[in-house]
């Protein structure tokens, strides 16, 4: 390079050392720039490796948090389903208890009627005795009455005495039955109390499921993970920015190096080193200005992209909120449709019950007209429900399409929410399909009723049905009472001299006694089935509570219970409650589990949170098992 530069021929001045010095300086500067480029390239590689590691850590944390969040949601859904099932069972038991109470009240009313009939028979007996005494007095006074009339009256009196003794025996048996019915009513009251206790336990289970310490700890953990991910994302963005700046600087230095080399090769005829230094400084300043302009443009582009992305996220959030509002409205419509379907079923059942073959032609015609009007109304309602179902289905499909588009364009933070909305939509679709099947079955039943009402065929009665078992004894009692009334009217018309109780009255009492006996047998069978069902439900409830909370709970009394972790059954905790608010007043850790004394002091004594202590024990046992 020194041979390429020729010094100007000026008399008395030798510039070759100065030019050589400048050339050496430029070569040293080029080597320094090369070392700086190599260092920056190594730093860029280290930054890229760090970015890759941070990205892998971020992906693993996101997958773990998503799995934990999904598991928590599934557990809450299962708990909500079990709570709804237990509430339905408790309502069913309450209805059975009310039915048994009504049957018991009817039995009491029948007993009161029997007492009244017995008093009437006693009054008739007294009247017969007075007539007998009057007949004896008349015989003694006149002497013209025959002994035959007296004998007949005595026979009648003896028969009445026998009837009274039989009625008294029946009354005693009925009273005994009444006492047993009182015992049954007492047991029913106890079962109702147990059902209420089950309702309270279900309410407490729901409260613990909603406000449990495990859910709070999990939410805190997710928040901390979210903050950590945000910090890592910020670090990654700053590292990427530094990497980008380093790349720009390396490119700028390489370009400057090439420019210097080409410039020095092509401009060997420079007049002086001052001109060379001036050109170098001008080019450096121009390069710096251009670099600053490029960096500002890149910063503006990055800000614009970030702003557009944030606006898209806000727009998707607004669309999600509107979709959730529409889903809530759809849920309300679905509940209304279910209520209308239940009403349609009840109306159809009433129509089936009112189509009785014993009615007259006029009554049957009136009922048929009423049934036809009701059927027309039901048809209109069914058509309206089908239209509303079609509209709901269209709305649902449009919502699915919008939400699927939002899922493709939104960030990873909103993907979990969109999946939850999709699952809820699938559940609503399944409920709509069930409602459609119910509507179709209701339409078929209405059409069958319409055909049965228009045709001359008779409805076949179902033998051995619960309706027949309930109505048959009442019809038999009604027929017996009608026969008794006819016999009494016949006696009143014929005016028999010796008035006595007709045989039909005794038969009526026998029929009533048989009816009461059958009712008692039915009540006893219902009581046994009710007791078995309660035992089964209690066992299922205890098993569900043990599986959900991880503790086997054993009630020693109304105020004391023992808790045993399923992962370590030899560990036993004892809790005592008060009688009013059912709050725990003391909690005791047994001698063989003193290892959890520190957890108990931290959670139960300092923070006043017994569920937190139990959850901490479970987490420690899980860690021991995994390790």
Could you please describe the fold and organization of this structure?
Its main location: nucleus. Belongs to the MAD1 family. Residues 30-256, 306-533 form a coiled coil. The chain has 627 residues and is mostly helical. Among the domains are: 317-454, no CATH class; 550-626, Copper Amine Oxidase, Chain A, domain 1 (2-Layer Sandwich), CATH 3.30.457.60. It is 83% helix and 4% strand. The protein has ten helices and four strands; from the N terminus they run ααααααααββββαα. The protein has helices at residues 16-142, 147-211, 213-266, 273-354, 361-409, 415-454, 466-494, 503-549, 597-606, 610-626, and strands spanning 551-555, 560-565, 573-577, 584-589. A four-stranded antiparallel beta sheet has the order 1-2-3-4. Helix 2 runs parallel beside helix 8 (503-549). The two termini are 72 Å apart. Residues 1-12 and 453-463 have low confidence and may be disordered.
Query: Which regions contain 5 or more consecutive residues with pLDDT less than 50?
Result: 1-12, 453-463
Order of the strands making up the biggest sheet: 1-2-3-4
Gap from first CA to last CA: 72 Å
The major sheet is characterized as:
4 strands, antiparallel
The sequence of SSEs as H and E is HHHHHHHHEEEEHH
Class per helix and strand makeup: mainly alpha
**Percent range for β-strand residues:** under 5%
Measured as a percent range, the helix fraction is: over 70%
Oligomeric state of shown chains: single chain
The number of helical runs is 10
Number of strand segments: 4
Radius of gyration: 48 Å
- Mean pLDDT over the full residue set: 67
GO cellular component, one term: mitotic spindle
Protein name: Spindle assembly checkpoint component MAD1
Family: Belongs to the MAD1 family.
Coiled coil: 30-256, 306-533
């Amino acid at each position: 390079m020194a041979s390429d530069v020729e010094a100007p021929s000026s008399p008395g001045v030798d510039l070759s050392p100065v030019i050589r010095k400048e050339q050496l300086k430029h070569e040293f500067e080029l080597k320094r720039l090369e070392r700086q480029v190599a260092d920056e390239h190594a730093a860029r590689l280290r930054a890229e490796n760090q970015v890759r590691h941070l990205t892998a850590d971020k992906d693993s944390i996101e997958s773990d948090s998503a799995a934990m969040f999904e598991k928590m949601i599934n557990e809450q859904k299962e708990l909500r389903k079990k709570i709804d099932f237990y509430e339905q069972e408790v309502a069913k038991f309450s209805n059975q208890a009310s039915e048994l109470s009504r049957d018991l009240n009817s039995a009491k009313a029948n007993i009161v009627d029997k007492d009244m009939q017995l008093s009437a028979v006693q009054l008739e007996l007294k009247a017969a005795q007075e007539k007998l005494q009057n007949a004896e007095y008349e015989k003694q006074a006149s002497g013209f009455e025959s002994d035959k009339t007296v004998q007949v009256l005595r026979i009648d009196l003896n028969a009445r005495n026998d009837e009274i003794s039989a009625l008294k025996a029946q009354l005693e048996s009925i009273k005994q039955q009444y006492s047993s019915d009182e015992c049954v009513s007492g047991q029913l009251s106890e079962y109702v109390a147990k059902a209420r206790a089950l309702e309270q336990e279900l309410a407490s289970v729901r409260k613990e499921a909603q406000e449990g310490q495990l859910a709070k700890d999990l939410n805190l953990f997710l928040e901390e993970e979210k903050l950590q991910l945000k910090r890592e994302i910020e670090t990654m963005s700053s590292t990427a920015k530094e990497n980008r700046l380093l790349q720009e600087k390396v490119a700028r230095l390489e370009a400057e190096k090439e420019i210097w080399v080409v410039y020095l090769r092509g401009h060997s005829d420079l007049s002086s080193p001052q001109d060379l230094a001036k050109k170098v400084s001008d080019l450096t300043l121009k390069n710096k200005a251009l670099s600053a302009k490029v960096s500002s443009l890149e910063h503006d582009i990055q800000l614009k992209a970030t702003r557009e992305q944030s606006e898209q996220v806000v727009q998707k959030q607004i669309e999600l909120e509107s979709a959730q509002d529409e889903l809530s409205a759809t849920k309300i419509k679905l509940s209304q449709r279910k209520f209308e379907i239940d009403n349609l079923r009840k109306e159809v059942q009433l129509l089936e019950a009112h189509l009785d073959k014993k009615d007259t032609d006029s009554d049957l015609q009136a009922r048929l007209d009423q049934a036809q009007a009701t059927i027309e109304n039901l048809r209109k309602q069914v058509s309206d429900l089908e239209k509303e179902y079609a509209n709901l289905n269209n709305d649902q499909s449009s919502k699915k399409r919008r939400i699927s588009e939002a899922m493709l364009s939104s960030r990873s933070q909103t993907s979990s929410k969109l999946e939850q909305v999709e699952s809820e939509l699938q559940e609503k679709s399944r409920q709509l399909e069930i409602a459609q099947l119910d509507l179709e079955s209701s339409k078929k039943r209405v059409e069958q009723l319409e055909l049965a009402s228009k045709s001359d065929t008779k409805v076949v009665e179902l033998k051995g049905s619960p309706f027949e078992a309930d109505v048959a004894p009442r019809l038999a009692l009604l027929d017996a009472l009608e026969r008794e009334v006819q016999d009494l009217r016949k006696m009143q018309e014929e005016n028999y001299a010796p008035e006595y109780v007709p045989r039909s009255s005794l038969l009526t009492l026998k029929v009533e006694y048989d009816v009461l006996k059958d009712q008692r047998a039915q009540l006893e069978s219902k009581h046994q089935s009710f007791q078995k069902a309660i035992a089964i439900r209690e066992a299922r409830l205890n098993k569900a509570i043990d599986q959900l909370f991880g503790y086997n709970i054993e009630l020693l009394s109304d105020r004391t219970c023992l808790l045993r972790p399923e992962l370590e059954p030899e560990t036993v905790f004892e809790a005592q409650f008060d009688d009013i608010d059912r709050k725990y007043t003391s909690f005791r850790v047994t001698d063989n589990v003193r290892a959890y004394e520190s957890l108990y002091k931290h959670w139960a004594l300092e923070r006043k949170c017994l569920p937190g202590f139990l959850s901490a024990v479970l987490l420690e046992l899980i860690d021991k098992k995994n390790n």
